[in-house]
Amino acid sequence: MIQTYRKIVQYLFLAVTLLIGVQFSIFVSQLEKGILPTMTRPPGIEAFLPISSLISFKYWLVSGIFNPIHPSGLVIFLVILATAILLKRGFCSWVCPIGLLTEYLNQLHRFIFRKDVRIPRWLDYALRSLKYLLLFFFIWAIIIKMNIRDLDYFIYSPYNMVADIKMLHFFKHISSLALWVLVSLLVLSILIRNFWCRYLCPYGALLGGLSFISIFKIHRNENTCTQCQQCTGTCPADINVHKTTGVISDECHACLKCVAVCPEKDTLYFSTSTRSGILKPLFYAATICLLFMGASIIGRFTGHWQTNISNYEYSFHVAHLDTPFYQHNRGQVPVYNKEAWMMMMQRIKKTKSAWQKGQKLKN
Ligand code: SF4
Ligand code: SF4
After folding, report:
1. Fewer CB within 10 Å, N- or C-terminus of the chain?
2. Calpha distance 353→27 (Å, rounded)
3. Cα 256 to the chain's mean position, in Å?
């Protein structure tokens, strides 16, 4: 039953993700056809802009301003951090669609090799450090290096304003190199279990690091444990659950598979301590759903959900997407001068009045 709850939550979030994807694609395609969108831009799309959200996070910390360009991205980022502090890396195994895909790829791995192939420990540790290196790179580049002026500049830059549209274009018009990278990752994830999540995902590294301070974790009652080792055998993160009284690992993503498989009643549980504060799987499912729902409701009521970019501005941006304003150069957003920026805002105003006169945007 525990895994049924988890699957229900995973498919629920997958359905929401697909819905957001479809709605956003329609929104952008209407803009590209020169039609002022009839569909609202789904704010949830900003969940797919983690770098922009990390920049928004630092900007919020140093300036106290919750930026209005991608506010829901920051709300979602904060709730994901909260899940790690409360519920370990539950985001990875209960919410993230890539986590769900990884589980199916793991099944394919088992089907091909007839068992779970474990790579040598030394190689596993070496590869696991890769995702932390990527995370440290982002922390260095954003949290350490960017000052308030840089943050301000990036957040209000045309590049950041259309980051979601550019992401959609990246997948719609995928280059052969990017396609090869994706196919390689897919193949590697079949050959090596959890390849992306365990070795490369910087989001996973961030949540894994935070999950060390998680209030809840897996606990084992030594008195009733019979050392059958079924928990360890089923753990997708290769944690020796049967040897510990409390799982302290950045790789535990709270899938609760060990709890589900344990044959001894009340021996393994997700709790605050070895004896108390047990969070039953049904309540885990409800808590993680409520956290996301609650965050989106609070975001809406406090005005931190919808972007303040109007559809007129979007129509302007989409019509000029190929100009240097929206490009980045070797990872750097271009430097804009004030005059160029003012000219652009003037043109946006003209776009708005053209729309109001019923004209279509030409250039
Ligand atoms: S099986 Fe248990 S220990 Fe292993 S990742 Fe899942 S919850 Fe954590
Ligand atoms: S599955 Fe339960 S009984 Fe078996 S080793 Fe793990 S905790 Fe102990």
Report:
1. C
2. 21
3. 21
Mutate to test the pocket of ligand 2, among 224, 258, 264 (most ligand atoms within 8 A of CB): 264
- Decide whether any atom of ligand 2 lies within 6 Å of the 241 Cβ: yes
- Once rounded to an integer, what is the mean pLDDT over residues 310-338? 64
**Whole-model pTM above 0.85?**
yes
Half-sphere exposure of 352 (CA within 13 A, CB side): 12
pLDDT digit string, tens, across residues 82-131? 999 999 999 999 999 999 999 999 999 999 998 888 889 899 999 999 99
CA 278 – ligand 2 centroid, Å? 17
Ligand 2 pocket member 264 (CB < 6 A): yes
Q: Average per-residue pLDDT in the chain? A: 87
Nearest CA to ligand 2 atom 3: 225
Please give the single-letter amino acid code of residue 228: C
Q: How far is the CA of 217 from the centre of ligand 1 (A)?
A: 9
Structure letter (DSSP) for residue 296: H
CA distance 180 to 294: 39
Whether pLDDT at 334 is above 90: no
At 340, list the tokens: 């160029």
Q: Collapse the DSSP code of 268 into the 3-class scheme (helix H, G, I; strand E, B; otherwise coil) and give the result.
A: strand
Residue nearest to atom 8 of ligand 2 (CA): 225
Q: Which atom of ligand 2 is nearest to the CA of 230?
A: 1
pLDDT reported for residue 352: 58
Is 268 close to ligand 2, i.e. is its CB under 6 Å away?
yes
Question: Is 32 near ligand 2, meaning CB less than 6 Å away?
Answer: no
Q: Provide residues with CB under 6 Å of ligand 1.
A: 218, 235-237, 239, 241, 247, 252-258
**DSSP sequence for 175-243:** -HHHHHHHHHHHHHHHHSTTIIIIII-HHHHHHHHHGGG-S-EEEE-TTT-----HHHHH-TT---GGG
End-to-end CA, the chain: 57
Ligand 1, closest atom to CA 254?
Answer: 7
Per residue in 196-208, pLDDT tens? 999 999 999 999 9
In the chain, helix, strand, coil percent, each to 5? 65, 5, 30
